[in-house]
Write a structure and sequence with these properties.
Layout lengths: L1 H14 L1 H12 L1 H37 L3 H53 L8 H14 L2 H26 L5 H9 L1 H36 L1 H10 L2 H53 L5 H42 L21 E9 L9 E9 L3 E5 L6 H8 L7 E6 L2 E2 L5 H6 L1 E4 L10 H6 L9 H11 L2 H5 L21 H14 L4 E5 L7 H14 L4 E5 L3 H4 L4 E6 L2 E6 L1 H7 L2 H16 L1
Parallel strand pairs: 3-8, 3-9, 6-7, 7-8
Antiparallel strand pairs: 1-2, 1-4, 4-5, 9-10
The protein binds adenosine-5'-diphosphate.
The site of adenosine-5'-diphosphate has 12 residues, from helix 12.
């Protein structure tokens, strides 16, 4: 009993998604909903009207055979014409309806895309590091795009079929109240099968998300350019193919098992309905033979009951599918309901146009989602305004994490980060980010034109060609672009036709130009020259320092030649600052920095 009540509770809670689903459909295009509603009602009444006309027609034909006269013949003709007109009308309205459904589906898909895209742009970066939430997004994207459209089609179909069923029920009432009741009972097992199978299918879909994502990942490894070189060199294509095949096989078997069970249940439900229909039919034939009804009545009954049963099955099937779509909609809604934690305050303080004092990290403790170890603990650091600060240290020391915290991609667990004494959490997020430009360690390769690649740094002035060229010059990207026949119009990357692939160092310079185009007072560079050779680096550095004179710059670097140019150098190790000073001071100290500097210089000397 408690099992049943928990099932019913679950069904009800799932159906509670329906009002939100309906409002989604309504908001996506009101005019289509109204059009659909009108058509469904009209199309709903027509089948019953046609069946009634059939009865009148059959009775009238039999009457004409019995007593042929002009009046009878005219009646038969008019009934035939009315039947033809209504049938044609039903077909025409069906065509219009499917057009409306197509338009509505497209509208709805775009609307759901818009909601997902808007949400994705706002979600915390931490979101992308949590597989369980990622599974959610996967389901929302894979299923929810089509589900609302299906929901809308089903609601329409349910409405139309209810109107038809009620009118059929009224037609059948002339044989007694019990007939519509038998009709209803005969289709109940179908409802059970649909709801049961749908719940199982959805549970399976949830369970298989991880596997499915894994198989997509292998598919991607096998088919995209990024991994093509390694796949060939290491000969690991067949290895990933086997992994892909194993997952697909597992999923296929599970799906077939589910399908088999569902078909078996459906067969049972159909058999039940058939037996009842047969019983009722025997009854009506015997009534007609006894002379208690006309042949027209028999035709009416046969059509109404037969069609009614089919309709009832479709109707219940739609209810089941409605339930199924509500289940899948819950994935979409759960995703849309994810609340980002890193948000602007209700009443943000005013953001300065530039820094006067500097950026301070005070007693900052931070760890990434799901990891127990703190990357930073009680961490203090000061970056003076309008100076160039270098942060050096081994991999995993926490240098990139500093940049992510200054951009407020994450909030610290404890402590605070302040711009000129104001906590970042008190500033508007977009204004804060407007102050900053970043060149990330692995800059993104936009498959757009070279000019657009740079202009994306500040989308508010996309056609500032002079600004784009200046940024390219400052980043040392101008020489690369000059070699393209199409110049700034050259499409980059290999994704689209006429695209041109660049080397890692060349992409880095384009990204640097993008960062410079932003013209913001704070510049954060994470290994800006890692893909450049030392000569290219020296050349770039000269230009950069000239340009960055009045800016606050943080450079994370492995290259001591880069770090040595900074006003202040922090040496970081294992989440802590272990040395601080200018290049000369650190050399004098003769600590870690000095020994690493000597090591690197010796290596360069050797290479030359
Ligand atoms: P660095 O830039 O000095 O090489 P990072 O700041 O990238 O170091 O990383 C510091 C530590 O945080 C490392 O131990 C790394 O494994 C961990 N880490 C970095 N990014 C993430 C992340 N997105 N999720 C979980 N751990 C991370």
């Amino acid at each position: 009993m408690s099992f049943l009540s928990s099932k019913i509770k679950r069904i009800l809670s799932t159906l509670s998604n329906l009002p939100r689903g309906i409002s989604l459909i309504w908001n996506a295009g009101k005019i289509w909903v109204i059009g659909q509603f009108f058509l469904m009602v009209v199309r709903g009444v027509l089948p019953a009207a046609l069946i009634y006309l059939t009865k009148l027609f059959v009775d009238s034909v039999i009457e004409t055979i019995r007593t042929p006269n002009q009046e009878q013949i005219t009646e038969v003709i008019w009934l035939g014409i009315s039947f033809a007109v209504l049938t044609i009308l039903y077909e025409i309205l069906g065509g219009v309806n499917s057009l409306i459904l197509t338009a509505q589906k497209e509208n709805l898909t775009d609307h759901v895309f818009e909601l997902i895209h808007k949400k994705a742009a706002k979600t915390d970066l931490a979101f992308y590091e949590q597989p369980e939430v990622f599974n959610h997004l996967h389901r929302a994207r894979a299923q929810a795009r089509s589900r609302p459209a299906e929901l809308s089609a089903q609601l329409g179909s349910i409405l139309q079929n209810s109107v038809t069923l009620i009118s059929m029920g009224i037609v059948l009432l002339r044989f007694g109240l019990w007939l519509p009741v038998v009709l209803f009972i005969s289709t109940l097992p179908t409802l059970f099968v649909v709801v049961y199978s749908t719940s199982r299918l959805h549970a399976w879909q949830r369970k298989k998300t991880q596997d499915e994502r894994e198989s997509w990942y292998y598919d991607q490894l096998l088919t995209t350019g990024d991994s093509a070189a390694e796949i060939r060199l290491f000969g690991i294509g067949p290895y990933f193919r086997r992994k892909f095949v194993a997952i697909r096989k597992k999923l296929r078997i599970q799906q077939l098992r589910l399908g088999f069970r569902q078909r078996l249940l459906e067969f049972g439900a159909s058999l039940f309905a058939l037996v009842l229909a047969g019983g009722v039919f025997v009854w009506i034939v015997s009534q007609t033979i006894k002379g208690l009804g006309t042949v027209g009545d028999l035709a009416l009954f046969y059509q109404a009951f037969n069609q009614g049963q089919g309709l009832m099955r479709t109707f219940l099937g739609d209810i089941g599918r409605l339930y199924s779509n509500s289940l899948f909609l819950s994935d979409l809604f759960e995703y849309l309901d994810l609340e980002p934690k890193v948000v602007s305050p209700k009443r943000p303080l005013s953001t300065p146009n530039d820094l006067e004092q500097g950026i301070a990290l005070e007693k900052v403790t931070f760890n990434y989602h799901g990891s127990k170890e703190d990357v930073l603990k009680d961490f203090d650091l000061f970056i003076p305004a309008k100076k160039t600060v270098a942060v050096v240290g081994p991999n995993g020391a926490g240098k990139s994490t500093l940049i992510k915290l200054i951009c407020r991609f994450y909030d610290p667990e404890a402590g605070s980060i302040k711009f000129d004494g104001t906590d970042l959490r008190d500033l508007s997020l977009s204004e804060l980010r407007g102050l900053i430009t970043v060149l990330f360690q692995a800059p993104f390769k936009y498959n757009t034109s070279a000019g657009e690649n740079i202009a994306l740094g500040d989308i508010s002035r996309p056609s500032d060609q002079k600004g784009i060229e200046t940024a390219a010059y400052e980043a040392g990207a101008d020489e690369i672009i000059a070699e393209f026949g199409a110049g700034y119009e050259q499409m980059l990357g290999k994704r689209f036709s006429d695209g041109r692939e660049l080397s890692g160092g060349e992409w880095q310079r384009i990204a640097l130009a993008r960062a410079f185009f932003r013209q913001s007072p704070i510049i954060l560079l994470d290994e800006p020259t890692s893909s450049m050779d030392p000569w290219a680096e020296a050349d770039w550095l000269k230009k950069f320092l000239k340009m960055a004179k009045d800016k606050t710059v943080v450079v994370i670097t492995h290259r001591f030649t880069t770090a040595s140019q900074a006003d202040l150098i922090y040496v970081m190790e294992d989440g802590k600052i272990v040395e601080t000073g200018s290049h000369n001071e650190l050399l004098e100290n003769d600590g870690r920095y000095a020994s690493s500097w000597r090591e690197q210089m010796a290596k360069y000397a050797l290479n030359e």
